[in-house]
Amino acid sequence: MTGARTGEPVTPPDPHRWWGLVVIALAQLMVVLDATIVNIALPSAQRDLHISDGNRQWVVTAYTVAFGGLLLLGGRIADRVGRRRTFVIGLIGFAGASALGGAAVSSGMLFGARALQGCFAAVLAPSALSLVTTAFTAPKERGKAFGVYGALAGSGSAIGLITGGLLTQYLNWRWCLYVNVPIAALAVVGACVLLRDRPGHRGVRLDVPGVVTGCGGLVSLVYGVGEAESRGWADPLVLALLVGGTALLAAFAWWQSRAPHPLLPPHIVKDRTRAGCFLTMALAVAGLFGIFLFMSYYLQVILGYSPVRTGLAFLPLTAAIITGSTQISARLLRRTAPRALLIPGMLLAASGTLLLTTLTVEAQYATRVLPAMVLMGLGMGLTFTPVFATATAGVAPQDAGITSATVNTAQQVGGSLGTALLNTIATTSSAAYLAAHHLRDPAQQAHIAREGIVHGYTVALWWSAGLMLLAGLTAALMVTAKAPGRRAPTDSPVPESVA
User: Fold this and answer.
1) For the Major facilitator superfamily (MFS) profile domain, which residue ranges apply (predicted)?
2) Cβ proximity of 208 and 126 under 8 Å
């Protein structure tokens, strides 16, 4: 028996697939939370290693640049070598880099370890998502599996803040890195015992010009955006990186339509529904990551929360994302068109974000922040599951890794761009507010300064809500796939525009 579209033999479902999903979810959670787990630990690490204010951002940026820039390459390697093999390699490498970072005795050693973490995460993340894609093909099971995956992808950053706060306050900032070692070791054992995958596709060739232009362009773009947070958008280095990255990505797009073995096959992004999912993901995460940044500072700087209390304050957001993903999206995905979940999801998330625009220096957590986090979490939970499931549906096995990598790239690049853009808007708005409300009375200056900070946050949050509404509009116009349950069993849930 063969698949209707791919001609590949149809194998019976793996009896261990649900336990395998636990292993995959554990690894994915580790990768996602590592983008934020060091945020709360950063002040302690900065003091211990004597990192300057100008260089401290590299603790975060070194990871995101390597991760976001190398995802496409990691996805293609997974297609060629085999997903389970690259999954295990990524886990071992990630654990080793984490141990190196935890033992860092200098800033350079920590930056290098974080970059190495990002490199192995770029191999691990697409392997994890493509293993879910190939293990769960029945629509009902697929919805449940992607509900779990979407919940972790959406809530991982918030879980990272919680974990980082607990480890930093009660142990040491180094444990924010050391904690990955036992998690990865457990996942490696589980992967070797429980995961099953087809051998790699030796026919997949590595597109060297595509690697240079595509990965080089993404690294340059993510690096430039990261530098814009501290240097400003008009800085010559930032402009050079952004222009250079854009030029490389334009060259990449031109080459992919002519390459004999493209790194990113054009039919993957030419499909209207799939492209809509990529763009929806990028816009949604751009809005969400800015909220993580502002709320972390608001809770600590304005409301005076401790690191642990700040992390715990994000628990309702995490719980709401998990609920929306596993209890709503996963149950409805089989019988509901993806955009019927995406549009309400983005509207809910945007409404929660708009509620945060009413924050003041005296605002209470229970009356303003908590309801907003619940709304945002439910909205993101409704969004992530159909995006992951729909974007990866219907692809040939030899393209599963690169398609998964493209979804992850949209998430990482969207998060980097959104954080830098919204942070710039916030700081600019705060400066304008302070200039307009400058007072000579020192007794009022501190209060005005706090109001200026909150004003900057609220202006940026209006933009964040706008990004989420734009994500909903994108889903409405581009994600045209029907409900999987309404199609013939042999059909793909996502119509392919190119055979």
Assistant:
1) 20-483
2) no
